[in-house]
Design a protein that fits this description.
Layout lengths: L2 E7 L5 H10 L7 E7 L5 E7 L2 H8 L8 E7 L14 E2 L5 E9 L2 H10 L11 H14 L2 H11 L2 E9 L6 E6 L4 E4 L3 E5 L11 E4 L4 E5 L4 E5 L13 E2 L15 H7 L1 H9 L3 H13 L2 E6 L1 H16 L4 E6 L14 E7 L5 H12 L4 E6 L5 H4 L3 E4 L12 H18 L7 H12 L2 H11 L4 E6 L4 H15 L2 E6 L16 E5 L6 H13 L3 E6 L8 E4 L8 H19 L18
Parallel strand pairs: 15-16, 15-17, 17-18, 18-19, 20-21, 20-22, 22-23, 23-24
Antiparallel strand pairs: 1-4, 1-10, 2-3, 2-4, 5-6, 6-7, 7-8, 8-12, 9-10, 9-11, 11-14, 12-13
Helix pairs in contact: 4-5, 7-12, 7-13, 8-12, 9-12, 9-15, 13-17, 14-17, 15-17
Bound molecules: 6-O-phosphono-alpha-D-glucopyranose.
């Protein structure tokens, strides 16, 4: 989704920093990009275009633009098609104010009408353009950038983060956030406002996370924060955070894509996920044990990790437990009260639906919010009573890989504490098992070659392995654009069997243990109707056309080992089909709008 990076400096030219920041935010998903630079003579130069950041640079040479203050943006179209006019920055009528925006201004139609009645002329179809005009209005009236941003913010409904640049204020940025992320970066000579710390991490690891509903005034020397009523917040409330993510892990190393690199990082990241402060895990377990019921909420891959947690909580801890997709959270509301613990899971901590679910639960006086998040300092962390971090480093590939396995392991660690069971074992041993699961790579490449032309793929499994089938199907859809479904093996006869044709590939997750025989019977039924069975199992079986061998393990670690080959399969299917696995079409890493 849209990414913002803005910079203001006492002595540096900021264009190259903005360009670098835009590249670092590319993973969020976008279709156009742009920058606005304020030069020493007080005029704002805007360069924007449809396409990739490198195309913006090639066509407009943005890195050579002069200016010590500037704003930049990657746009993921919501309101208005993909066009140069709709790309950001958006500029006010008089060209004195330029803004970049992430989010949706829900009442933009009414605001636009009112502004047009006052003589404002709009050039784009975006909701964002109203912000430029609102800030312009406010600035004319109040003569003060912060007052202008506040006036605009108080008129807007929806969710937003925006940053404004004023042509007559050469060393100033003003930003605001409401349910969308905006982080301050404090470099020695240059300061930043960005959607994501990754955007400025090459320059500084000192960040200040703004709270929701705040307006910020940033110069190379000062940082002032106001609430939406215009009251200045005490600097004591602004703690500088040292961002621990190593920049080294932001490079692709020797891998062709981030996605492949991140898949390969998993032997290390599952171990890092387990390196939790035992006291914090104990505290989280305590919250679970104390709760009358637990509701887990998440989206995408995080939802599948939540499904795995639910199974253990229900079967082993015998807890009343529900998993609700965050976008469907409303249906759970009647059952939420002070006896409920909400467990929110999210890699980014910025998924709009997840944050909205937390908000709804708070309104129902939920007993507590525990989250599992990768991005420290994210909105979800700030809105939780307690968070456990996934510690898996920045995940750049749009499709979640290492964050999923980290979630599974942090969940296991916590539930082990609840149940008193020691299922996780030695982290190093787990790392070795994941290494072995990665040995499936040549076979997955070969299978991708063989099946990349097929229109449909099915994934089946039972019990605690069913979420793995769902995750395998999701990865395949995201990366290869092939229709895929993950389903309980038991449901086959209720529809899916009708879809099986000669040669239809079906991935059957069939590890040793309960349900094995039944799953194999289902595989036989599929094979009898022409399906080609790819077995994810500890041992070959005559019904498997291909066996993807996974190491033996106890049940709680098995999903991690089973999903690794499926991630590889999806990755190679994408490269076979000449898709860009790091930037799947139409998808975004951080879904910050509902
Ligand atoms: C998007 C990403 C997925 C991710 C999902 C949830 O759809 O492309 O990879 O699983 O959002 O994101 P979250 O950051 O909340 O885990």
């Amino acid at each position: 989704m849209c990414g913002i990076i803005a910079a203001v400096s006492s002595e540096e030219e900021v264009a190259p920093l903005l360009l670098e920041g835009l590249k670092r935010e590319e993973y969020r998903g976008y279709d156009s990009a742009g920058v606005a630079l304020l030069d020493g003579r007080g005029s704002i130069a805007v360069k924007k275009d449809v396409g990739m950041v490198r195309e913006l640079e090639a066509r407009h040479g943005v890195s050579k633009l002069k200016g010590q203050a500037g704003i930049a943006h990657t746009r993921w179209a919501t309101h208005g098609g993909v066009s140069r006019e709709n790309a950001h920055p958006q500029v006010s009528c008089d060209g004195e104010v330029a803004i970049v925006h992430n989010g949706i201004v829900e009442n933009y139609v009414a605001l636009k009408k009112a502004l047009e009645a006052k003589g404002h002329v709009f050039v784009s179809e975006t909701d964002s353009e109203v912000i430029a005009h609102l800030v312009e209005e406010g600035y004319e009236k109040e003569g003060d950038p912060v007052a202008a941003a506040l006036a605009a913010a108080n008129l807007m409904r929806g969710q937003y983060a925006f940053v404004a640049l004023f042509s007559d204020r050469p060393r100033l940025l003003v930003g605001a956030r409401y349910d969308a992320p905006l982080v301050v970066g404090l470099g020695e000579r240059t300061r930043f406002l960005a959607s994501d710390v990754l955007a400025f991490l090459a320059e500084t690891d000192k960040a200040v996370f703004l709270d929701n509903k705040e307006v910020v005034e940033l110069t190379p020397e000062s940082l002032r924060v106001f609430n939406l009523k215009g009251r200045e917040m005490s600097p004591k409330t602004r703690k500088e955070t040292h961002v621990a993510w190593e920049l080294g892990s932001l490079s692709k190393a020797n891998y062709a894509h981030y996605t492949l690199k991140e898949i390969h990082e998993q032997p290390a990241t599952v171990q890092a996920a387990l390196a939790q402060d035992p006291e914090k895990v104990g505290e989280a377990a305590e919250r679970i044990t104390r709760a009358r019921s637990v509701v887990l909420t998440a989206a995408g891959s995080s939802y599948h990790a939540a499904l795995l947690m639910k199974l253990r909580l229900a079967l082993e801890a015998k807890m009343r437990c529900e998993v609700v997709l965050s976008g469907e959270f409303e249906r759970e509301l009647p059952f939420i009260d002070e006896g409920t613990l909400l467990v929110a899971m999210s890699q980014s901590g910025e998924t709009a639906d997840v944050l909205e679910a937390v908000k709804m639960a708070r309104r129902k006086k939920v007993g507590g919010v525990l989250s599992m998040v990768n991005a420290a300092g994210s909105s979800l962390v700030r809105q939780s009573d307690q968070s456990l971090l996934l510690n898996c480093g920045p995940e750049v590939g749009v499709a979640a890989t290492k964050s999923f396995t980290a979630q599974v392991m942090v969940g296991n660690l916590m539930i082990d504490r609840v149940t008193g069971r020691e299922s996780v074992g030695d982290p190093r041993r787990l790392g070795q098992l994941v290494e072995r699961a990665l040995e499936s790579e040549p076979l997955m490449r070969e299978l991708a070659r063989r099946y990349s032309g097929r229109p449909d793929f099915y994934f089946i499994a039972r019990g605690g392995h069913y979420p793995v089938a769902q995750e395998g199907a999701l990865k395949l859809k995201e990366l290869s654009y092939i229709h895929a479904e993950g389903m309980p093996a038991s449901e086959l006869k209720h529809g899916t069997l009708a879809l099986i044709e000669e040669g239809t590939p079906v991935v059957v997750v069939a590890p040793n243990g309960p349900g094995y025989d039944d799953t194999i019977s289902n595989a036989q039924e599929l094979a009898a109707r022409g399906a080609e069975i790819i077995g994810i199992a500890q041992k070959p079986h005559p019904v498997f056309k291909h066996t993807v061998a996974i190491p033996a393990s106890n049940g709680t670690v098995a999903p991690v080992l089973e999903v690794v080959p499926l991630q590889l399969l999806a990755y190679f299917m994408a490269t076979e089909r000449r898709n860009d696995p790091d930037h799947p079409r139409n998808l975004a890493k951080s879904v910050t709008v509902k």
